[in-house]
Amino acid sequence: MKTIAYYISDYGYGHASRSIAVIRELLIDPKVRIIICHSFALSFIKSSVQSDRVTYRNIRTDVGYFLERNSIYPDRGLLLKEYKSYLSNWGEKVRVEISFLITSYVELVISDISPLAIEAANSLDIPSIGISNFTWYTAYQGLIEEHELRTFKEAYEKMDYYFSLAGSQDSLSLNNITQEYGFFSRDIEENEVNQIKKHINPTGTNHIVFLGLGMKIHLDLLDSLPIWDSLNTSFIVSSNVNVNRENVYQIPFDYNETQNYIAASNLVISKPGWGVIGEALCSNTPLLLLNRSSMREDQNTIKYLKKRHLCKTIDWDVFKSFKVDSDSLKLFESTDARDSNFKSEARRAAEGILAIMHS
């Protein structure tokens, strides 16, 4: 039995959902044991990955973003404060992880995309794989001064392998073996999708729009947005979005397979989270993405998608007065030139991990 420590970023649910897709594929190999290291969405991961070969460890793996109130834009001051706080006892954090890796007999470290995991693995000469469309070092460039980012930069440079996911434009000088992978998603269940459609749109006369701003975004003005008044439109929102309208359906708090709700939609409107985009692409659902020019990660993802005609974008100030109608839906569908046979790359990513582990 080979033991993998799989570290997952604590920012939102996107890193968790895409990691679940890979972990499910890894567990097809009966010789794999996985320790999942995470905190923010740990209950979600536990209920999504149920195997006697998986254990869980509650640990804060990184910092993430912090957003301005009533905004989708980063709060630079708060981000710098939290980042410095996280690094204040960095040496002790690394020592704790080294002890964990030794006592758990870990043979491979996977990180999406915690620098702490890579630093500890390198100290023990345990092979490490970073898997992401960005590193927090490059994500913070332009938000935090370069000299402040040295610790994260040096940690990421110690990766042995980097699984570079679609949209990655990392500027690190990585002395590792890089492999490239496209978007992926947890598997979509067609019967479940059909049941969702019947529940939300029983007459079949409405458009279904998934509106996803992320689990970390809380907007007091959300309830007053004109978009909810769109004619002949039913909306799907996350369990944390409290909008009291007859045409708005919350995904139940205890429902994990949200990719099925995206597959049931005629349009996905979202911030450019990699996980949501992967789920939309894998279900061939058109994408309208909120454009945040100050966030490097978002811009890299949007650039990748636009080059391939896989999305449209909308600025936040325009979105605040936006409504969905038949003409706009036709526009999104007609400009969406993706391959309807788009395949999730989760299995290929897992095969790449297993090849490294067994070698």
3D architecture notes:
With 359 residues, this protein is of the alpha/beta class. The protein has helices at residues 14-26, 42-48, 76-87, 90-103, 115-123, 136-140, 150-156, 190-200, 259-263, 274-282, 296-307, 316-319, 326-334, 346-358; strands spanning 2-8, 32-38, 54-58, 108-112, 128-132, 161-165, 177-181, 207-212, 233-237, 248-250, 267-270, 287-291, 312-315. The strands form 2 sheets. It has a 7-stranded parallel sheet, sandwiched between helices. It has a 6-stranded parallel sheet with strand order 10-9-8-11-12-13, sandwiched between helices. Helix 1 (14-26) links the parallel strand 1 (2-8) and strand 2 (32-38). Helix 1 packs across helix 10 (274-282) and helix 1 (14-26) crosses helix 14.
Distance between the termini: 14 Å
Strand arrangement, major sheet: 3-2-1-4-5-6-7
Structural shape: globular
Q: Give the biggest sheet.
A: 7 strands, parallel
* Mean of residue pLDDT values: 92
Element order, helices and strands?
Answer: EHEHEHHEHEHHEEHEEEHEHEHEHHH
Q: Which class of secondary structure composition applies to the elements?
A: alpha/beta
**Helix fraction bin:** 25-40%
Please outline what is shown here:
This protein has 14 helices and 13 strands. With 359 residues, the chain is an alpha/beta fold.
